[in-house]
Structure formats: structure tokens, C-alpha cells
Recover the amino acids of this structure.
């Protein structure tokens, strides 16, 4: 099992009131699964992804990732764990405007102190795999949305993560680009990468092996 959530919640204070963004979520994810989180805006999909990805913290309950108790960890340990094992793909791409495609893809390797020669080889592999070798010296603003998302996925994959978290990964793409991106996720999943995506799209959700519906911070059906 790659991760386990037991009665996890995320409660925030707003204007003196407590608001539960997630309420007593229980979820087990096995290695190699492809899970689609569905639900209307505000149902907690992105919050759940961010907490699983350790960008935010659950405020209650226990979270185990690769047999490690995340809920008891210090910030630094958590950060090390997610940089090592988790890749994020966002709707808004989150590429760094001042960096070229090559440099954007290389960035996660710099955090991991990978040697220069190895970085070159890994980036070359990614450029090749996604057919973007010809784009390596361009900046994000010179790319289409679909190409930017490919770069985002290449960047997420470069560290060979065990888990990819994708938040509305095709939200800004046209239908042809969306299908390409989803086919790509499907292929990665067949290679053994565990994927959890948050999506509004029935079509995208159908690529998953399991669909989990959220409403008001609760899992309502699976």
C-alpha cells in the first residue's frame, strides 16, 4: 500500500468560525492504482490532493505514506519525503517563466543534488519521450497550453516519483490536448506509477481504475 488516511480532516479558522475543508476522510491507495477524485468546486478535491502531497497538512487523523507516519513528521522530513516520491501536475502548469523548457524540467533534480552529467541524461530522456527536444530552449510563454502541460508532466516525472498528483490536469486544454494528456497518464500508470487526479470531467475520470466522489469535504461514494 502506498498511502493510508485514517479519519483525516482539515479544519481552518475563518472569521472566528471553524470550517472543515475535509471531514474524517478514510482512504487506502495501493501501489499502481489510478484514482479519480470527482465532485463540484469546493468539495475538497484540491485540498485532499494538497494534503496527500504534503503541501498542506491534515489537522486531524493519521496519514501514512510508504509506511511512514506523515502526521508525526517535522516539516523538513515531510519536504524530503515528497521531493523524493511525489510529482505534482497542476491545472495552471506552474512553470517558471524565466526558465527555458530544459531548465524547468531540470529544476527538481537541482533540489536533489543530482550530478550534472546525470541531470543532462535524465532531461534528454524526458525531452525525447515527450517529443519536445525542439522546444528545449523556448520559454513557457512561447508554448501552447498543451505543450506547457507536457513540460509540467515531464518535470513531475523526472525524479521518477512513486505517486503523481494531478489537479485538473487538462482544465486549460482543448479536447484533443486533453485526450493526449490522459492517454499519457494511462501509459504512465501501466508502467507502475500510482496516479491520483482531481477532475470535473467524466471523460478524464473514466481513465481511472477507481472513482471517488467528494461532497462538502466528505467521501460520498466510491
Amino acid at each position: 500500500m502506498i498511502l493510508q488516511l485514517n479519519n483525516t480532516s482539515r479544519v481552518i479558522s475563518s472569521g472566528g468560525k471553524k470550517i472543515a475543508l475535509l471531514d474524517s476522510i478514510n482512504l487506502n491507495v495501493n501501489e499502481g492504482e489510478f484514482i479519480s477524485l470527482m465532485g463540484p468546486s469546493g468539495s475538497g478535491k484540491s485540498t485532499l490532493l494538497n494534503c496527500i502531497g504534503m503541501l498542506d497538512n491534515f489537522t486531524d487523523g493519521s496519514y501514512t505514506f510508504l509506511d511512514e507516519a506523515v502526521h508525526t513528521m517535522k516539516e523538513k522530513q515531510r519536504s524530503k519525503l515528497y521531493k523524493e516520491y511525489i510529482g505534482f501536475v497542476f491545472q495552471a502548469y506552474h512553470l517558471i517563466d524565466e526558465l527555458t523548457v530544459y531548465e524547468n524540467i531540470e529544476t527538481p533534480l537541482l533540489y536533489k543534488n543530482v550530478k550534472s552529467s546525470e541531470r543532462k541524461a535524465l532531461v534528454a530522456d524526458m525531452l525525447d519521450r515527450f517529443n519536445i527536444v525542439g522546444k528545449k530552449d523556448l520559454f513557457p510563454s512561447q508554448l501552447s497550453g498543451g505543450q506547457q502541460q507536457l513540460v509540467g508532466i515531464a518535470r513531475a516525472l523526472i525524479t521518477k516519483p512513486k505517486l503523481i498528483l494531478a489537479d485538473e490536469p487538462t482544465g486549460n486544454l482543448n479536447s484533443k490536448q486533453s485526450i493526449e494528456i490522459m492517454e499519457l497518464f494511462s501509459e504512465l500508470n501501466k508502467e507502475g506509477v500510482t496516479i491520483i487526479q482531481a477532475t470535473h470531467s467524466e471523460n478524464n475520470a473514466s481513465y481511472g481504475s477507481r472513482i471517488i466522489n467528494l461532497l462538502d469535504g466528505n467521501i460520498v461514494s466510491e
Notes: The beta strands are 3-14, 17-29, 34-38, 60-65, 68-69, 86-89, 163-167, 194-198, 210-215, 218-221. The two ends are 18 Å apart (CA to CA). The domain at 33-43+77-221 is CATH 3.40.50.300 (Rossmann fold). The helical segments are 45-52, 75-85, 101-111, 116-129, 145-157, 175-190, 202-205.
